[in-house]
Amino acid sequence: MIVVSDTSPLCYLILIGQQTLLQQLYGRVFIPPAVFDELSHPHSPESVQGWAAALPAWVEVLAPQHIADELAALDSGEAAAIALARDLQATVLLIDERTAVRFARSQGFLVTGILGVLVDAANSGLVSLADAFAALEQTNFHRSPTLFADLLKKHGSE
């Protein structure tokens, strides 16, 4: 399985202390240099910067060969992640931002974000979905007021 990640899913997993779920679910994750730069940026949370400074062996930074002009409307990390996913013929693209998700899906990618990762991890018995959502509520993650409750109802509380 080839998995490419944008910044947001990684950042939120780090913030809630669940970044190893990616290794447990996917084994290895590729990120483009633009994503690494966003994670390392001085405005990123300290824990995220620290994680990027000591990048785990299961994360590989790899530059895309070419970023197509059609990706110019997206954030640089999103565009680079989609371009890298194209290059690697990725199985899964981890991305959260709506515009980038719509574009990636229109290109035929299987896309999931932080919530999909957490649901998959809960379904695999790796994490309590209720606990993960409670931790995510302590961050600046944007969502509708009922999203977590709806997902817990659909996927179970544990």
TrEMBL record:
<dbReference type="InterPro" id="IPR021799">
    <property type="entry name" value="PIN-like_prokaryotic"/>
</dbReference>
<dbReference type="Pfam" id="PF11848">
    <property type="entry name" value="DUF3368"/>
</dbReference>
<protein>
    <recommendedName>
        <fullName>DUF3368 domain-containing protein</fullName>
    </recommendedName>
</protein>
